[in-house]
Amino acid sequence: MRIGWGFDAHQFAAEGQVLLAGVLVEEQRGIDATSDGDVLAHAVTDALLGAAALGDLGTFYPSSDSRWSGADSMSILADAASRVAELGLSPQQIDVTVIAETVRVSPYREEIRIALAAALGLDLLDVSVKATSTDRMGFLGRDEGLAVVATVVVS
């Protein structure tokens, strides 16, 4: 058994959309990012790669490479999962926490869990999605962006 921990944070943008595991959770503003800005998919990808000791998101999908401009982050997650599978490892459990002041996760929690379970071949009971705020402290509390932390167990 191996455990990986991932983190990602992005600023909001004036236009676009906010995706969490490919699920549209907000249309009034977007995320400032190279890819589609799906911070949840990025954090899980980082955790997955870390659990397999393969590096981080930037190792395989650097923001300096124009190939990743506008990329589907769930496709990036699937690619990372296949890299991990090449080592004979597979995800067993995921625990995710979204940290945001105004983005609401609860209306989309089950859809996000289903998307993650499907992307990684997990049972729904092996995918946990939670949310919290910083009670108006810092850039997250000022609603300037959002962050996600993720833990992934592989074996």
Topology (SSEs and partners):
Elements: E1 2-13, E2 18-20, E3 23-26, E4 30-31, H1 39-51, H2 57-60, H3 73-85, E5 91-99, H4 109-120, E6 127-132, H5 138-141, E7 145-154
Parallel strand pairs: 5-6
Antiparallel strand pairs: 1-4, 1-7, 2-3, 5-7
Describe this structure in words.
- It is a single chain.
- The protein is of the alpha+beta class.
- It has one domain (2-154): 2-C-methyl-D-erythritol 2,4-cyclodiphosphate synthase (60s Ribosomal Protein L30, Chain: A, 2-Layer Sandwich).
- It is built from five helices and seven strands; from the N terminus they run ββββαααβαβαβ.
- It has helices spanning 39-51, 57-60, 73-85, 109-120, 138-141, and strands at residues 2-13, 18-20, 23-26, 30-31, 91-99, 127-132, 145-154.
- The strands form two sheets. A five-stranded mixed β-sheet has the order 4-1-7-5-6.
- Helix 1 (39-51) packs parallel to helix 3 (73-85).
- The longest helix is centred in the N-terminal third of the chain and has 13 residues, at 39-51.
- The radius of gyration is 15 Å and the shape is globular.
- It starts with a strand and ends with a strand.
- The mean pLDDT is 96.
